[in-house]
Amino acid sequence: MSGTTTGRRRRPALAAVALASALALTVTACGGDDGGDSSAEAKPDTSADGAAEDGGKVTDRLPEDLPSSLRDLDKWKEGGWKDWDREQWLRDAEDFANPYLPDHWKPERLREAEGNDNTVTADVETAAGSTDREPDAVRAEPVKTPYTRHAAPAGKIFMETPDGPMVCSGTVVKDPGNPGKSDLVATAGHCVHGGQGKGWFRNVMFVPAYNNSGLPESRVDGAPRGDVHPYRDWWVEWIQTTAYWMERGAASGGGGAQQDFAVLKVRTDQESGKSLEETVGTAVEIDFDAPPVERFSGISSYGYPAEAPYGGERMFRCTDRPGRYTLDPTQEPMYRIGCTMTGGMSGGGVFASGRDGEARLVSVNSLINRPDVSYAAGPRLGAAAKGVFDAISEKYAGTS
């Protein structure tokens, strides 16, 4: 794989996939699971819903690292856990614990969040025969504002990691277990779990249509909260990602990227009693049977890039004809497009138009290349991703 190409080939005209068209989407239920899913409490000896099995008897088990006193809770709330030994924290974070801390993500902490990116470099070996020519760079363009009209299901995900607060992107998706009342958000696995030998991140929160009017960074802090958080903040209470990501995921080099997918379950709004989908007014359907890359004329990738030259305050989009990108030949090729979005765009939705002309989520942003940042790649969502989605949908079916 080479660096950014210097020449530009002629491209067909590509229409950007309008995320606003998700308003008309309907739910379709699909079957199939290759056993590749892993819940937020998943271990080799646990069931899909995180209950421990002991001699054939299923027993509930609480995470062992929850705060045990008010003093511990205060330390947790102030982020004191991040001062623990980094490697020990990653080992101990086998269980997902995300106690609701309503005042944790204050403006100053939001500003500290850096892009949580997953990178590859030119010397990373790709699979011959299933990796296409590197695409020309496509400059990301700002998404039209207000986002509540043009990209309501898209938003930012904030999380605490051993390296400090970080940010990713995500998309509100349809939930067949709660038709019209989904509380599910699709994102990348590396936005919520550290990958091989590591654990779950903490204090995970989703903000749909963040910075609705696209205010510059200098004006975000002083803006009315309703302008920056138009649909309020949504605390995450459960997460599922693939076993492949948990076992092989790496922050660089592309390990685990071909199944770098996760689904978040947020808390239903406690004041209104409304679900995330009802509050936002729409959600996107996930296509777990999308065609191979060569059958797409173009796909669009959305996200909040947070590293230079971007500041993380605005939503951007790249549209391009995808090519194949393969690091592990045992897995299906990823979708790769030219794109200049930087870290922070990870987990953002990748959309294509279905036969009915409506946008469907076919992937999530997983990889960008360094040092050029000229392309992005995301996994094809097949049986393993479907297994992850089905497990969390079934766990909360009928609860919204």
Q: Overview of this structure, please?
A:
This protein is of the alpha+beta class and 400 residues long. 14% of the residues lie in helices and 24% in strands. The chain contains nine helices and 20 strands. Strands 7-8-9-12-11-10 form a six-stranded antiparallel barrel. A five-stranded mixed sheet has the order 5-19-20-16-15, with no helix packed on it. A five-stranded antiparallel sheet has the order 6-14-13-17-18, with no helix packed on it. The longest helix has 13 residues. The N terminus is likely disordered.
Task: Chart the SSEs and their pairings.
Elements: E1 37-39, E2 52-54, E3 57-59, H1 70-77, H2 86-92, H3 107-112, E4 114-115, E5 119-121, E6 141-142, H4 147-150, E7 154-161, E8 164-173, E9 184-187, E10 202-208, H5 217-220, H6 225-228, E11 234-242, H7 243-248, E12 262-266, H8 276-280, E13 299-303, E14 316-320, E15 323-325, E16 334-338, E17 349-353, E18 359-364, E19 367-370, E20 375-378, H9 383-395
Parallel strand pairs: 4-8, 5-19
Antiparallel strand pairs: 1-11, 2-3, 6-14, 7-8, 7-10, 8-9, 9-12, 10-11, 11-12, 13-14, 13-17, 15-16, 16-20, 17-18, 19-20
Low-pLDDT residue spans = 1-13, 22-37, 41-69, 75-84, 89-93
Quaternary status? single chain
Estimate what percentage of residues fall within beta strands: 15-25%
| Helicity, as a percent range | 10-25%
SSE order, one letter for each helix or strand = EEEHHHEEEHEEEEHHEHEHEEEEEEEEH
- How many strands, which pairing sense, and closed or not: the largest β-sheet? 6 strands, antiparallel, barrel
How far is it from the N-terminal to the C-terminal residue, by CA?
A: 47 Å
**Strand ordering within the main sheet:** 7-8-9-12-11-10
Determine the number of helices (DSSP H or I, runs of at least 4 residues). 9
How large is the radius of gyration? Answer: 20 Å
Total number of strands: 20
What's the rounded overall pLDDT mean?
82
Helix/strand-derived category reads alpha+beta
What is the approximate shape?
globular
